[in-house]
Amino acid sequence: MAAAWFGCRTNQTPDGDAGYLRVDIDTSPLSLDPRYGTDAVSSRINELIFDSLARIDAHGTIAGDLAESIERPAPTQLVFHLRHGVRFSDGRPLTARDVKYTYDSVLAPATLSPKRGDMGALAAVEAPDDFTVKFVTSRPYAPAMQWALLGVVPNATPAPPRRNQASPAGSGPFRLGKFVRDEWVILDRNPYHRADPSAIGGVAFKVVPDPTVGALELIKGIAQFAQNNLPPALVAYLRGRHGLRVMQAAGSTYQYMEFNFRDPILADPRVRRAIAMAIDRDAIVASIMRGTARVATGMLAPENWAYEPNVTRYPYDPQSARRLLDAAGHPLRSDGKRFTLVYTTTQGEERRLLAEAFAAMLAKVGIELRIRTYEWPTFYSDIQRGNFDVTSMAWIGINDPHHYYMVFDSAMTPPKGLNRSGYSNPQMDRLLEEGEAALDPARRKAIYSEVQKLAAEDLPYVSLWWQDNVAVMSPEVSGFMPFPNGSMRSFAGVSLAPAAR
User: Which helix (H) or strand (E) holds 306?
Assistant: First the structure.
């Protein structure tokens, strides 16, 4: 740790900006254009630069942002009435033409936006006047409000070149000041966005891949804030040290175990249920996660409007797991094993510990779990191609139950969707397709209640936990408010007080 600290002492804000919040992040954003940034870091930074028609609020529901009111005059129409007086950071007024252009550029095949695939039902975006935007869908489509979360860029903003380090003008609280890939992202205040005089002058994001270095920077006061990028063991170490505050709040990030349904052993629901009962999730949350998560019952966290609590649950019960495996035709062999599965994972201490915990727990019921560790690109490519037996991954910031369609509908195998396991159930397909078309909120909630119950019975995923949002900050930081999806939007109102050290 001392060697790491010696190596990071020069990581100051490049321009020595006073009044800027220094935030450590673990990777560079892939794109500071909201039409292209899909990774978590890009999303977090882009929502500080760009406004959108709507936002996810602190309660996890969609509320107006640029839109001061929203209406649905017909089953295939959504109408947004924009706020007046909004300006981009270069001084241009924001109008409906900018919104229309943003969506048209995403939908244009030539721009190669990765967000185009999720807008297949968006037939047209219209701008009948400067302050009205209309979405027209090809069919009644309940999740259409999700599209309103896209950041808006000015009219005629070209597609960025590969590895672009610039950012279009946005109308959010900050604007891009400097971007040095794998080093810094400096955000200055947007001069056309109203701010409290006591608020920070900007945000200096420093890329610090090593979490130990990040912890040391917080201790020494070089960094003032880090969220969701420190392992639970380091968070436990930092609690109460050097005046640091740890803010922990319920989050919507969902950790799960996924099975390959192309494997005849795993296609048997008795085997999947046995695995679910062989995993002591309470013990993992208490030990590896250090209490920074809640044991999950399904994909949607309790804070989500569509959450269904009355689903089948699988408490830790290795004896029942053994009986299920016997009934499935997998008795113990003379070597004490029933069969062998390969668990595919990627690098990192926490992932290693998790893999070892799974292997030890499944060994108790006679399942040998062989661990294969790969670098992220290889790991992700294998998962997308269905080249795995068992793996564990996380979905970050699930806002709408439409996500069930993307991962569990039988038509949504890659590259079209995210059903990487090859799971197929006609009853699930029917429910998910009904949920896509149900515009009545009560009807939609009832449908997704049945979806969650069926998912708990079928177990395409074993639900592990919902990750808490954990922010570590210096004592001078005030005004930060956590969001369930990990958003840092409250940086707009954060202030820094002189710290006594």
Answer: none
Q: Which residues of the chain have pLDDT under 70?
A: 1-18, 161-165, 498-501
Q: What is the pLDDT of residue 342?
A: 97
H-type helices in 315-408, by residue range?
Answer: 318-327, 349-363, 376-384, 402-408
Q: Within a 13 Å sphere around the CA of 300, how many CA atoms are in the beta-carbon half?
A: 27
Pairing of strands 62-64, 122-129: unpaired
C-beta separation of 56 from 62 below 8 A: yes
Phi and psi, residue 324, nearest 5°: -65, -40
Residue 356 has φ and ψ, to the nearest 5°, of -65, -35
Q: What are the φ and ψ backbone dihedral angles of 141, each rounded to 5 degrees?
A: -140, 100
The pair of structure tokens assigned to 33 is: 């254009």
SS3 337: coil
> Containing H/E element for 4?
helix 2-8
CA distances in angstroms from 451 to 434, 436, 446, listed in the order given: 11, 12, 9
pLDDT of residue 337: 96
Each residue's pLDDT tens digit, 338-377: 999 999 999 888 899 999 999 999 999 999 999 999 998 8
Residue 352, both tokens: 């290693």
The dihedral built from the CA positions of residue 90, 33, 143 and 396, taken in this order, carries a sign that is negative
Count of residues in the chain: 501
Which DSSP string do the residues of 403-423 spell out, in sequence order?
A: HHHHHHSTT--TTTSS-TT--
Cα 28 to Cα 200: distance, rounded to the nearest angstrom: 22
6-57, pLDDT tens digit by residue?
Answer: 334 333 556 556 689 999 999 899 899 999 988 889 999 999 999 999 998 8
Q: Are 125 and 103 in contact (CB under 8 A)?
A: yes
**Residue 232, helix vs strand vs coil:** helix
Comparing CA positions, the residue from 417, 499, 487 lying closest to residue 42 is 487
